[in-house]
Write a structure and sequence with these properties.
alpha+beta; about 15% helix; globular
Length: about 725
């Protein structure tokens, strides 16, 4: 472990699992081939370091192997490896290495939800003589890449008590193992009772997987696609992106082996990045995903609250040449930041310059200002400038900062080889900073070239605050969407408040905290959003229930839940909150759609979402935070049946979905096209009560029936299906 690890480990809280309305932030690829302090040769614990390489087809690995490189994992042209620290220069000078950086570390980001999102209407069909199978994700694979998975929870069993987990993967990054090797232990269905339980990350992955595909016959709180097969990847307490990509790979591998459609849910992300769709995740997905039947969903993030999320800033210096100035404050508290990490992305190659300030919080005055640093032209710039290192003062360009702070300040910059844009990165790590500290670090940014810039902080540790200094500004959440969501291969999911109250296991009714989360039915205050840079699109694509969602929770010495709701045979269900919960819900809905049409493409999923999501007054008043609106499983399947031009007669079974339009009318949609038929309602004892003929595949059946259970029969194309339905 070299110097950069020492300095960055306290900050690597970025690819977060976004439950409990935690912050989502993360380290993204650096501007050039090397991480910020890669040039420093000081070794702290070991001379072996982990790296991620993106290489072209002419890359020759043999010289590197001979000099000590160990490739731990490879996917396409992306290599994960451990190398001797002194190999950095060799890699940096290799023209066939497209990018080079360190693996990032990450830390952790239904009943009502199913009802309000149209899922129950797809579950409602009850098999009568096997004529109809309800939409429950049967024949679809759901991949969950997370931490804190208990594969032995009964929510992952089928109705016969057999596990539906087809592959359970327990990974360790090469940065976590003593010999710097990547570890991925696989367990199949027959091994699930002896597979290790991951108790880390507050059982985050148990909850997210249960939302997507949990099942329990005695429990109202089953998931969206309870008959889907599962591939679960869990990563313990330290989560790195080599493990994340491996988990996606494992899910794709299994789905391709069994020739089934797949949706992967990732409740993790990063606000840091260019927000333009470029980066290694996009490169990986472009290589790995097939053209259809394979969908990847990412959580939007939980940094969208304008009252307490100050993580981003923008400025177009071509319109206003005055410097942009702010300070680094500790996230959520507003006191001076002990750790800070910031990226400044230009819209193009235009350069920016940065200077540092020290502010005395007692007097609210600037007591120190440095020169401006141009990372392109500074004579000592070798990708990284060491502005302060109190342990190595002779290497500090600004030793006077030691009068105010004990620690490290680094700046890196240059043109990013991933997109040709100018990037500045700043990192600080101080000792002894607390709420009583007198000084806070600030900065000013300028651009003589008129750059249009986006500034982002590592939201789990640091915010932008003005501290009332004249000319300084606060940050905002207007670009808080996870950078992963900008990939053109991804579906991004935000959160809305579907549940108004929940009764806990002690019988106490707990109501939604509207002051914190927003009104019942509204977009969740915390749900992240933002534009796709270089486009007129805004993200996320869609909203799903994410606040106080009830699903299975992990248990051991501690039961990880905001509110404990239910217990069955020693297994527990409880609530968690965040876009972490919304993402697997949407993934489960997409699994239901894939069950109906297994070859759906990502672009078709976007089309379905844009044309079927619920747009109510809450959505209309929320502006750019909502995407297309609230995901609607029923309307989405209806759109597949009626609007996608390549829908065929589905297999050998006639299926019908039903929605109650009013107290005296139901809508019936069939999975056939251009068909004449008839829909009838019967009492349970077989007496015909109402009917409607149809031409096409939609029938409206009027009735004057009381609340109760009835039989619906549909006859079309010489096929007959019978479904038990509830009229409310």
């Amino acid at each position: 472990m070299n110097l950069i690890i020492k300095y960055l480990v306290p900050l690597m809280v970025g690819v977060t699992f976004v439950s409990h309305a935690d912050n989502m932030s993360n380290f993204q690829p650096l501007s050039s081939k090397l991480w910020m302090s890669q040039r420093f040769e000081r070794v702290v614990e070991s001379d072996m370091v982990g790296v991620i390489l993106s290489v072209n087809e002419d890359f020759d690995i043999e010289p590197y192997r001979q000099n000590g490189m160990l490739v731990t994992y490879q996917s396409g042209n992306i290599l994960y490896a451990t190398i001797p620290a002194d190999m950095a220069k060799m890699i940096s000078n290799d023209k066939n290495v497209l990018s080079y950086r360190r693996p990032r570390q990450a830390y952790p980001t239904l009943d009502v939800a199913r009802q309000v999102s149209g899922v129950d209407e797809l579950h409602s069909g009850v098999a009568i003589n096997d004529d109809i199978i309800p939409y429950t994700g049967r024949g679809v694979v759901i991949g969950i890449v997370d931490g804190g998975v208990n594969p032995q929870h009964i929510t992952f069993n089928d109705a016969q008590g057999q596990s539906r987990i087809k592959d359970y993967v327990f990974t360790q990054s090469a940065l976590e193992t003593e010999d710097y090797t990547f570890v991925a232990d696989h367990f199949d269905t027959s091994q699930m009772l002896s597979a290790p339980i991951d108790y880390e990350c507050e059982g985050h992955g148990t909850h997210t997987a249960s939302i997507a595909a949990g099942q329990c016959p005695q429990n109202l709180y089953y998931g969206v696609a309870p008959d889907a097969d599962l591939v679960l990847t869990t990563m313990g307490g330290k989560l790195y992106d080599d493990e994340i990509i491996y988990g996606i790979d494992a899910a794709i591998d299994y789905a391709e082996k069994v020739k089934r459609p797949l949706v992967v849910s990732l409740s993790l992300g990063s606000v840091l990045g260019p927000h333009d769709g470029t980066g290694e995740m996009t490169d990986f997905l472009a290589q790995r995903l097939s053209d259809n039947g394979q969908i990847v969903c990412f959580a939007a993030g939980n940094d969208g609250n304008p009252s307490n999320s100050f993580i981003s800033l923008t400025k177009n210096f071509s319109n206003d040449s005055q410097p942009l100035s702010t300070c680094f404050a500790r996230a959520m508290y507003g006191t001076p930041a002990q750790s800070a990490y910031m990226q400044v992305w230009s819209e193009d190659e235009k350069m920016t310059e940065i200077c540092l300030h020290v502010i005395d919080l007692d007097s609210r005055e600037i007591v120190y200002t440095s020169e401006y640093f141009n990372t392109q032209t500074h004579p000592q710039m070798a990708e990284t400038l060491m502005l302060l290192d109190t342990q190595m003062p002779e290497k500090s360009l600004l030793p006077e900062l030691a009068h105010y702070f004990d620690g490290v300040v680094l700046i890196a910059g240059g043109i990013s080889n991933q997109n040709g844009k100018h990037l500045i990165e700043l990192l600080t790590e101080f000792e002894g900073i607390d709420e009583y500290s007198q000084y806070v670090l600030g900065f000013s940014l300028k651009s003589d070239e008129g750059a249009n810039v986006l500034l982002e902080t590592n939201a789990s540790t640091c915010y932008f605050r003005s501290y009332g200094i004249e000319g300084f500004v606060n940050g905002n959440p207007n670009n808080s969407i996870s950078d992963y969501c900008s990939s053109p291969y991804v579906i991004s999911v935000g959160s809305w408040n579907a549940r108004n109250s929940v009764v806990d296991i002690e019988g106490n009714e707990n109501f939604l905290n509207e002051d914190y989360f927003g009104n019942h039915g509204a977009v969740a205050n915390y749900s992240s959003y933002g534009p796709l840079i270089g486009s007129d699109k805004t993200l996320p694509h869609v909203l799903a229930p994410g606040t106080n969602v009830v699903a299975a929770v992990a248990s051991g010495e501690t039961i990880y839940s905001d509110l404990l709701i239910n217990e069955s045979d020693g297994y527990y269900w409880g609530t968690k909150t965040g876009t972490s919960m919304a993402c697997p819900f949407a993934a489960g809905v997409i699994a239901l759609w894939l069950e109906a049409k297994p070859d759906l493409t990502r672009d078709q999923i976007v089309e379905i979402i844009e044309n079927s999501s619920l747009v109510d007054s809450a959505v209309e008043s929320a502006g750019s935070k909502v995407g297309a609106g609230k995901i609607d499983a029923y309307n989405g399947l209806k759109y597949i049946y009626t609007r996608l031009s390549d829908v065929k007669k589905v297999a050998t079974q006639l299926k019908a979905i039903v929605r109650q339009i009013s107290n005296c009318e139901i809508e019936v949609v069939m999975n056939v096209v251009d068909s004449d038929g008839i829909a009838k309602l019967y009492s349970i004892d077989g007496i015909e009560l109402a009917k409607s003929e149809f031409d096409g595949n939609i029938a409206r059946v009027s009735h004057n029936l009381n609340v109760g259970v009835y039989l619906l029969t549909v006859e079309a194309q010489s096929k007959l299906s019978t479904t038990r339905i509830l009229i409310k």
